[in-house]
Amino acid sequence: MAERKRRKQTRKDAQKRTLAGVAILLVCSLAVIFAVRIMILRTIGSYDQDIIIDGVSIGETDVSGMTAEEAKSAVESAAQAYAGVELVLSLDDGRQGTVTLGDLGLSVKDLDSIVQEATDYGKKGNSVENYKILKSSEAGTSSKVFQIEYQVTEKSAEDGLNACLGSQLKKPVNARLTQVEGKTQLIEDEPGEVLDLKKTVVSINELIGGDWDKKGGTVKAEVSYEDAQIVSEDLSGITDVLGSYSTYYGDGDEGRTMNVESGAQHVGGTLVQPGEKVSVNALMEPYTEENGYAMAASFENGEVVDSMGGGICQVSTTLYNALLLSEVEITERYAHSMLVSYVEPSMDAAIADDVKDLKFRNNKEDPIYIESVLSDGNVGFNIYGKETRPENRSIEFESETIETTESDEIRYVATDDYIGAMYTSSSAQEGLTAQLWKIVYEDGEEVSRDTVNYSQYNGSAETISVGTASDNEEDTEKMNTAIETQDEDQILAAIEEITEGSSEE
């Protein structure tokens, strides 16, 4: 019995020793693993997390040792090597154009994500794999290439594509109304072409994506069709001329002629729905060369000065009278600061930046359409609509001068004429107050007379030009100083002094 107990105890002691040994071994193993883990993490942690390790390329660009921003910039710079590659964009009917990838905004697809992957390479993810990558990088045996794909986007390519093919695309043509032998005639609209950016960009990216050979090629461009802004149906019920008016602008001043004709063309073709309000200034602006305007004389603060679009007021004035005859509601109108020559007082309508405008509202139950007519130095407007006024009713507008004010002022201005030259460049203009009457007749008899507007016009001084040009700068300065006084005696004295001094020499 005692022997049996001893053997049992011995087995228990052996088991304990075994378990203790296993435990010690396990602890040692864990310690080793932990130590290795610490070493690996320390190795990974010793690398700058914002710097790409050695041996990494993005596409063909070595980005070793770069920050993310530096790598992105380097790859983008490398892409510019292909900016000059030309593509031929071809339409189905043979029309084509050439454009460079640079003009289309060539870029690297998902570059930010690729750069981030390159930055994280060897530092994020499986630590053991990262340790191997880093050690290989240190040894100079690492080689990792992040593949890239080139692309253009709809946004980046839009301007380049339109510049390439835009001029070859058929523009939509609005339906319009005109007069043919005294009758209203409808000219049908024509749909236009518009470049299908989405489909065209897809075709371009199919060429330059994937294993692109870095060469140009021919890409099929796609177009779609769009209706004109004004289609024939919009004008089908508009049959009558409600009012017409024209003024003469001549052809003497090239800039002014251009402005009147351009302004009229911008206004013409306007369709106004019932209740719709219109700013004539908004129809004609911007007053730039690109929009068909030039420098020409205009009124500013009671003086005649050159300005871009000078002459557009004749357009608004002519339209104003056509609208009055059509009995369209005028909601805003301003007189010029001084009288104009092409209409009687109170029949004008000035346009001046955002200060003065001609505005109206279609107070009819049907749409109205504005046609501009340019012929033999005349600018005119026809207002079309559906005539509902009685046949025995007619209207006319009459200008009445209420008061005039004579101007006895004289204004002296310096010119490039030689000193001694002095002449009247413009006569004095009287100031004037006027009103415009609307007179209604029925069966030829006057039935009402109402005031449309009151207008006040400033007078202008007589302008005398005085020469200031001289070979002697002191004489020119002396002459300009005298002119600044606006005193005739001082001006004449300066002229006499300078000219007599020159004679003595």
The termini sit apart by: 158 Å
Strands side by side in the biggest sheet: 13-21-20-14
Give the % helix.
25-40%
Number of helices: 12
Quick summary:
It contains twelve helices and 27 strands.
Question: Any descriptors?
Answer:
alpha+beta, 4 domains, four-stranded antiparallel sheet, three-stranded mixed sheet, 27 strands
Descriptive overview:
The chain has 505 residues and is an alpha+beta fold. Helix content is 34%, strand content 30%. The chain has helices at residues 2-45, 68-79, 111-120, 127-139, 154-165, 197-208, 232-235, 254-267, 280-284, 312-326, 473-485, 488-504, and strands at 56-58, 61-62, 86-90, 96-100, 107-108, 144-146, 150-151, 176-180, 183-187, 192-195, 217-220, 223-226, 240-248, 270-272, 277-279, 295-300, 303-308, 329-332, 359-361, 368-375, 378-385, 393-405, 410-418, 422-426, 431-442, 445-457, 462-469. α2 crosses α3. 27% of the residues are buried.
Write the topology of this structure.
Layout (H helix, E strand, L loop, with lengths): L1 H44 L10 E3 L2 E2 L5 H12 L6 E5 L5 E5 L6 E2 L2 H10 L6 H13 L4 E3 L3 E2 L2 H12 L10 E5 L2 E5 L4 E4 L1 H12 L8 E4 L2 E4 L5 H4 L4 E9 L5 H14 L2 E3 L4 E3 H5 L10 E6 L2 E6 L3 H15 L2 E4 L26 E3 L6 E8 L2 E8 L7 E13 L4 E9 L3 E5 L4 E12 L2 E13 L4 E8 L3 H13 L2 H17 L1
Helix pairs in contact: 1-4, 2-3, 8-10, 11-12
